[in-house]
Design brief:
The complex is a heterotrimer. Chain B is of the alpha/beta class. Chain B is built from 26 helices and 28 strands. The N terminus and C terminus of chain B are likely disordered. Chain C is of the alpha/beta class. Chain C has a six-stranded mixed beta sheet with strand order 1-7-6-10-8-9, with helices on one face. In chain C, strands 4-3-2-5 form a four-stranded parallel beta sheet, sandwiched between helices. In chain C, 62% of the residues are buried. The structure holds flavin mononucleotide, iron/sulfur cluster and FE2/S2 (inorganic) cluster (FES). The site of flavin mononucleotide has 25 residues of chain C, from helix 4, strand 5 and helix 16.
Amino acid sequence: MSTQPIQIQPLSQPVDIGGEVASFSPEVEAEIDAHLAKYPVMRSAILPLMFIVQRERGYLDAPGVAYLAQRLRLRITDIWEVATFYSMIYTQPVGKYHIQICRTLSCKIMGEPGITDHVCNKLGIKPGETTPDGKFTVSLVECLGSCGTAPMFQIGFDYHENLTTEKVDQIFDSLK
Amino acid sequence: MSASVSRPRRFSSQFLITALFTVYGSQFTVHSSQFTVSGSQFTVFKMATEVIKVKINSKEFEVPKGARLIDVCRDKAFDIPSFCYYSDLALQASCRMCLVRIEKMPKLQTSCTIICTDGMIVTTQSEEIEKAQRSMLEFLLANHPLDCPVCDRGGECELQELTFDWGGLEERFIEKKNYQPERYLSPMVANDPQRCILCKRCTRVCDEWMGEDAIEAGGRGANTVIGTYGGWLDCSQCGNCIEVCPTGTLLDGTYRHQARPWELAQTISTCSYCSDGCEMSLGSRAGELMRIVARDRYVNGHNGEFLCIKGRFGHPFVNHEDRLRTPLIRYKKGGKLIPATWDEAVRHVAEKLKAVTDVHGAEALGVVGSPRITNEANYALHKFATEVVGTNNYAATDAFSLKPFFDNLGAPLATHRDIRYAKTILLIGGEPEELQPLTAKQIRQAVRNGAAKLIVVNSVPIRLVEHAARFIHIRPGTESAAIWALGNSANEATAAQKMGIEASELSALRQTVSETEGDVIIMFGGELNAAAQVIVAQLANTFRADARRVLLHPLPIYNNSVGVHDMGMMNGAMSVAGMLDGAGSSIRALYVAGSFLPEHLRGREEALAKLDFLVVQELFETDTTAFADVVLPAASFAEVDGTFTNNDGLVQRVRQSIPPVNQAKPDWMITAALAAELGTDFGFEMSASAVFREIADRVPAYSGLRYPVLKDESNPVQARYNIVEPLDLSSALKELQQTVAALLDTGEKTDVTPKVGHELFKIGTLTDKVSQFHLLAAGNPRPDTVRVSPLYQITVDAKLQAEPAVAGD
Amino acid sequence: MFIGAIGCEPLQLARVHLENSRSLDVYRKHGGYEAIKKVLDSMSPDDVIGELKKSALRGRGGAGFPTGMKWSFVPKDSPKPKYVVCNADESEPGTFKDRYLMERDPHMLIEGMLIAAYALGAKTNYIYTRGEYRYLIDIMDVALAEARAAGLLGDKILGTDFGAEIYTHTGAGAYICGEETALLSSLEGMRGHPRMKPPFPAVSGLYSAPTVVNNVETLTAVPDIIKLGGAAYQKLGTEKSGGTKVWSVSGHVNRPGVYELPMGYDDMEKFIMEDCGGMRDGKQLKAVIPGGSSVYIMRADQIIGKDVRMDYEGIVAAGSSVGSGGFIVMDETVDVFESTKNLTEFYKHESCGWCTPCREGTDWLVKVFKRIAAGHGRPEDAQLMLDLCDNIEGKSFCPLGDAAAWPIQSAIKRFPEDFRKHLIREQ
Ligand SMILES: Cc1cc2nc3c(=O)[nH]c(=O)nc-3n(C[C@H](O)[C@H](O)[C@H](O)COP(=O)(O)O)c2cc1C
Ligand code: SF4
Ligand code: FES
């Protein structure tokens, strides 16, 4: 009897999933190859590759998922189970600017509610929503490791710290 | 108030302890040693079973080293609740129900993860443990709907039972439950995600048993759900996820809201589809077969809770409205079949058969048995042919004959348990994952949980190749060459050339087998010709050694392919094809139980029309009955008592679950009635057990068997096949050499792995009666909404029903 | 934000204020890569592990397990490859020290990992960084490329026979992936579920091979241990907790930041009230969470005048633990009921869903908190929550369940008035 989770072997050949499969430019393919080269097991590259697909296609859409399954020699459910576990992998479209406001304790006591209200009022949406033009999404997320510079949010991968309403306004002006 | 539960729940755990003690000596020896093949033919190994002492609830016990605490406790009748623990699946330890206190360990420990050590002191019942276990149940029930009356699983739900057994549960959860709508995951599988307790048995059986990994957990934390990408389940639809689900989360979509479990009479019987012979429980109500399950609370066979799609869902034919209602007589060639009484029909058949044999001699009558009906039925047919008519022209409608194999058997047959614990498995030809799903499951578990080496010799990269340590990809049709090379290593180079492989692959294969310590199991499919079968049957002599047992496992297609051979139906002078070819000349009349296979009729469409007289016993009107002069309604496996013999050589009981439908009669009774009309009294006195007693007296492999001996499906009995002395194989090798020489070395190998279900979803006479199979054969289209049964939404074009899915398409 | 050492010479933070502190040149100019040179020149793997044992370095990821001992568990004779994995998943609320260590001094981490790889015989090594720290991954990639170009990675490092490679890996938003076995699952490309222990990663970890998982700060301490010698390093701290520790401070203090203190620093009150600049706006101190969210919350009166020594034993004696060293300081304006609710929501969001008590328990607790916050509290809810916590604690599959229970248990016991306010509504 096994006590370790059973290692999933790559399939001997990719499963024909049907439907469209995403394709990428040679540069992106090279980037993907570089990630795959880091690991003795292909599956390990699943998260880096998901970020790449997400960067290229906005989110993990069906062709993107099909691509990953084929590229990593995995079943489509393997991609799905992993994608839905991690909060940074999007299986639904998100806005061009994804504003992720930290809601955890340090930020909370240092003024997060005010920042959230301000951002939401500015955009006319509630946390978890996307503006109708698909430009902005606002989410409340858990601690982003900026507690000493709270309150803060992240837009995409960029940290914006020690926020005040004025600073938020400036940041938004620079985005437009 | 005590946390202990008296209801027996999982038999399988006790099983495992037995298995630990007797991994090699088949466990059947324990109870009925006279029926096993063990003995002088091979060395029986016993695993070193070191015994250690553990103290549970102040009582001391001796247990085999390496035993799992939860199994031990249950074996010693200390009940431990659990949901996620399941014998022989990857450990999960997530439900946290099985907590116990172990001295010197800081916290309560999950007994499912603990291996007993010498001197371990364990407490399974205390206030602290009860509080912990009750609180886990409380957590599980928090978001679980408590509307058990609407749940199909009510009455056999493990969650419900535990709650009921413990009683006195105060409901402290007053919040709103998380909501998720019910849906269908496939035509077979209904899903109520809210009821899920995330034990993940379903995902583990899907992966570890079926190798499909079609169903998985998605999401995180309290939002975790069991499901699939896109919400539609594309898999072999075995339904094992339904079976192992302890709650009403995964449900039989074909049986939704049809019956309550406690209304059903449960009858333990054997599957009527493939040669693996899964034990199952037929649930019937008022003469109707409602469902088939293998839940361990009802049945405990060698398949555990495993069934494949056919076994589990392929039963609606039993009560189908198309079942023949009465005997039918076609008084005039080209005329209509007209209903008749049994007396009329039997008299008519007897007269006609007598007329044919009187004029053309006994040999002009051919008798055709079937690998799908019971041993009793085939025995009666054999007796009819040889003793009543006196004809040598009898045969059975099987896809291939195993006679050369059994006649030259050089080693015992492997049981499915042997396969699970084997160290090397050599699979030559065949496609068990589609044709013998239980064998495939055992292979997978042997490889993944038991680190066995699987060697696949096949012209197609079948799905099992995924688990293979070595895949020898040969040209189509050259399986015999592989056998020829295994028979004599001098042939390797020539054989390799014919097979389109490197000779070194064959020597590596030979090496792997010769290095094995433990069991080697050689399996083969229908691709082998007679000479190759002889050599396979004798291969054990080549590879047997002190450290190694070699066992054989044929892969015939039908549920009673082995039994029909044992009953002597393969000993006739003519094959089925020969009879059809001789129709109208050497053969004037045929008495057929069941129907001819499409491959028999293909190219011989005219044959049946040429007969003077054709009598057929069937469930339905078929291509064969279309030409019949008399059609007699036969009873299906659910309506008869009898036995099937599976590919392990296990003689398994078939039990009557419902009275015969319409005017059907068991096949052997029909044959006995015809014999009586022709003046021979078989002396069976309407009792299947009398037929079997006669079988046991006449068939040496079955000698001494009686129905009572076969009654416990958890202790199956293997037929005692004669194992011949090592043979000189030179003539068989020479014969095979000619076959090999005639092979073309140009055949194209396929690189495409066949689609899941390409054989399983094939529409046949029986599966034709299951509407869901049509959806599957048509590619399992996703309906517009998964909230409603796909059957209400998708109607399948009639054309699709005729064209089965084809390999690789 | 303040970054610097107090009460000792900066070790971990020695170079953070230098210009271009990230670059290989600056690192080398200030003693960088001398430790690995010393190791390769004159020390056997066992010597390295011996020094670590002498240093009394305890893991900085939260569990505080002696690092030298952890390394010595790796079987020497295993035929499998071995791996060193750096845990840079830093997601514990209130903790951000690893971020600044990597941002300002990436080569220190590389050197620490190289020494670990040498001691353990690992060829391939990974830095598992949380997905949100993308910019740190980029910084590390640049630093790794620099090191590779300088012959500090790859085959024949510094001209010796020792070779090792280090790669970055990204998480994707899951706190549980900080737990070492969940981290390994995630690194293998699976869902980030923790795994059963035993087998411990040191025996069967990444790809079922022997693996050591260490926190960033643990690994960055290694070069200094080698340079100073284990015994000297230990002397910087206390007998059982050697060396210095980097604390993250956030909340209502005047000078939040990253502070390096010697282990056993006296005392916590002075640290908060003086070193961190005291409370903002002259408010009163109400509560402190000293070790990231997963420890007991402390009342001000457990600190003020209590001379709390800042090391593992000292803080435990005072009624909490070091955890990951994330100080969250709260003043009198904070409602501890609210802050506990906030943390419980965090644990609910981050529970991996594997085991029953953690998955269902955190969900239930959040529902209770929300109901109370909506004005439907009942006096018996305090007891209910304590009982639920008791049912989670010690029964969950991994320590996340315990971590979710502790803040609630301690908050209800230590700040009953904040809960009473919500549970009993004066008519
Ligand atoms: C829920 C949970 C989260 C954790 N998160 C982190 C983390 O973010 N960073 C970290 O270094 N260790 C974290 N740990 C501790 C690790 O499991 C592990 O103890 C640590 O990586 C070992 O390194 P060390 O010995 O250097 O401390 C976490 C543990 C648990 C139970
Ligand atoms: S669906 Fe059923 S078997 Fe599968 S995890 Fe959920 S409760 Fe368990
Ligand atoms: S997430 Fe670890 S115990 Fe549940």
